[in-house]
Design a protein that fits this description.
Radius of gyration: 23 Å
Oligomer: single chain
Strand order of the largest sheet: 1-2-5-4-3
Strand content: 15-25%
Helix content: 25-40%
Length: about 200
């Protein structure tokens, strides 16, 4: 059985039941401790959400993505045809693309992974990707019976681009992406994500 170190530390920090005169006093102490812990978690989450929002807005400002407060900060830097191999070793046609996130490359991968995963589904839908492999199947080209169905994200790698200062994802899909103007790098123009047109 895997031990939860956080739970063990929490239990070790609690006073012994014998330090309280009644069971009710002990339960009241435990309830107050839980309430305090929940409040600390809520404050930490709020702070984290604010830091992520500020980081995204700064990255959008630097890349001239407008409106900087509304754009999620994900853009496609390039997309190209690619040859890959399926599970039988057969050559298959695929697409390789580079997706840039709004997150600073100096922040650790493990700190951002859950945030990027959460962000990814609306971005995928915007790019015409309708399905993503589970983490354990990352890299396995999908098996199809007959025609290839909707576009599938089947392989991805994360990389810190220190020149650009942002985290990026190299993604491999079974078909080409549909990249709206709002998901393309700004070309000396302001991009309005609400209507997908340049200003």
């Amino acid at each position: 059985m895997v031990q939860n170190e956080f739970a063990d530390d929490l239990l070790d920090a609690l006073p012994d039941r014998s330090e309280f005169e009644t069971r009710e006093e002990y339960l009241a102490y435990l309830c107050a401790t839980v309430r305090k812990s929940k409040e600390e978690v809520r404050r930490a989450k709020h702070l984290n959400d604010n830091l992520i929002r500020i980081m995204r807005e700064r990255a959008n400002q630097q890349r001239n993505l407008r409106p900087k407060k509304d754009h999620d900060g994900y853009i496609v830097l390039y997309s190209q045809q690619w040859q890959d191999r399926d599970g039988n070793g057969q050559t298959v046609k695929a697409w390789k693309s580079l997706l840039q996130t709004p997150y600073d490359a100096g922040i650790s991968y493990t700190s951002l992974l859950d945030t990027i995963r959460k962000d990814l589904y609306p971005v995928m839908a915007d790019l015409g990707i309708y399905q993503k492999h589970d983490e354990e199947h990352n890299g396995a080209y999908p098996v199809f019976d007959g025609d290839i169905p909707q576009n599938i994200l089947y392989k991805w790698f994360y990389r810190a681009n220190f020149r650009a200062g942002l985290w990026e994802m190299e993604i491999y899909t079974t078909d080409n992406l549909s990249v709206p103007l709002a998901r393309q790098p700004a070309r000396n123009q302001q991009i309005d994500i609400k209507n997908g047109k340049g200003k």
